[in-house]
């Protein structure tokens, strides 16, 4: 599918951008003409094939090994990378992990790890790039939440708390930064087929599919299309919103 240079000349940062939903968003943005800065927890060389594919669309693509949950590391490295990219117009906070388990048996480490990676990382990255957006009086911040953050889910108290926190964070940020022309929205994916979900037993997958109006799990590209809308001028009057990308899994 051609995205007709919807983001031509735009500079986008995507955390966790070399696999899963993050990579699908990067692919859509690259096709739409954006230059990209992708953060990863691995050495960029391990994703050389993916990066070369993104570069084939003609834009600049930078991969940065960065622990987005570490405020000091983000504060030191991300502004430098933004200068190398040439600016920042779009930030997608996609990095996330799960440490599922019933709260009765959940360790403090599993709680802290998920809150740090899935929620605090958004604070770190937004605070690092916001001065640039503030000065240019424009920008689109997209935080990848989850339907679990909207409705909750047994065995995922830590994940639900982090993803619900992203929604509150985004709504508040949209009110703070709206007068400066900076928009902030959330996407809440439902059951999306990624490396994180492909290990789920088939009987559980079938049970979940029956709860989805469209009777199929989503693909990363489904989320990427929503992100492209929120990143582009098509959503110029949209801020402080949560878009459920779940095939009707929740109403």
Helix/strand layout:
Layout: E1 11-14, H1 20-31, E2 35-40, H2 48-55, E3 61-65, H3 71-85, E4 90-93, H4 108-136, E5 139-144, H5 147-151, H6 157-177, E6 182-189, H7 202-209, H8 220-231, E7 242-245
Structure write-up:
- The structure is a single chain.
- The protein has 251 residues and is α/β, with parallel strands linked by helices.
- It is built from eight helices and seven strands; from the N terminus they run βαβαβαβαβααβααβ.
- It has helices at residues 20-31, 48-55, 71-85, 108-136, 147-151, 157-177, 202-209, 220-231, and strands at residues 11-14, 35-40, 61-65, 90-93, 139-144, 182-189, 242-245.
- A seven-stranded parallel sheet has the order 3-2-1-4-5-6-7, sandwiched between helices.
- It is globular and about 45 Å long.
- The model has no long low-confidence stretch (mean pLDDT 95).
**Percent of residues in beta strands?**
5-15%
User: Structural class from helices and strands?
Assistant: alpha/beta
Report Rg.
17 Å
Helicity range of the residues?
40-55%
| Unreliable stretches | none
Strand order of the largest sheet: 3-2-1-4-5-6-7
Helix and strand succession? EHEHEHEHEHHEHHE
N-to-C CA distance: 29 Å
Mean pLDDT: 95
Number of helices: 8
What's the β-strand tally? 7
Q: What is the global morphology?
A: globular
Report on the biggest sheet: 7 strands, parallel
Structure described in brief:
The protein is α/β, with parallel strands linked by helices and 251 residues long. The protein has helices at 20-31, 48-55, 71-85, 108-136, 147-151, 157-177, 202-209, 220-231; strands spanning 11-14, 35-40, 61-65, 90-93, 139-144, 182-189, 242-245.
